[in-house]
Amino acid sequence: MRQVYPVILSPGDDGYLVYSPDFDNYTHGKDLAEAIYMTKDAISLLGVGYQDMGKEVPIPGQKLTKIKKGDIMAVADVDFDEYRILNDSQKVNTMVTIRKGIKNLAIKRKMNLSQTLEEAILAKA
Q1: Which of 20, 61, 72, 122 sits a CA distance of 20 to 30 A from 104?
Q2: Which domain holds residue 98?
Q3: Strand ranges (DSSP E) for the chain?
Q4: Is the pTM of this model over 0.85?
């Protein structure tokens, strides 16, 4: 489920410092795009970590804070389930059935069947 968390961006000489009040977390980016990207990644990683530890994931907007002059109030949208799927790198054995001719073609072309399957699933997701 996608959620939207408020964040505060503070411009500085070397980019933007970003504070996420609900997670009491800071991150940084050299420009606005990188700052928001890093913030979404940090919030997603923290949320997944909370879930894994059995902790309650913060409700968006519950810990608002005052912003200083020059700061920018923004939001970061995250989907913890999607983040988990795309970033879980643990490999598992999975049995699949394909036609013999397709398998032989893959072997002939020196294709990695596991990688090809992952790419196909991600392309359809």
Answers
A1: 122
A2: 92-125
A3: 2-12, 15-20, 25-29, 72-79
A4: no
If you ran DSSP here, which 8-state letter would residue 66 be given? -
List, for residues 53-81, the tens digit of each pLDDT value.
Answer: 999 999 999 987 888 999 999 999 999 99
- What is the rounded distance in angstroms from the CA atom of residue 7 to the CA atom of residue 26? 10
Residues facing residue 38 across a β-bridge: none
| Domain count for the chain | 2
Alpha-carbon distance 105 to 123, whole Å?
21
Whether residue 9 contacts residue 16, with contact meaning beta carbons closer than 8 Å, is answered with yes
Total count of residues recorded for the chain: 125
On whether both 35 and 63 belong to a single domain, the answer is yes
State which amino acid sits at residue 94. Answer: T
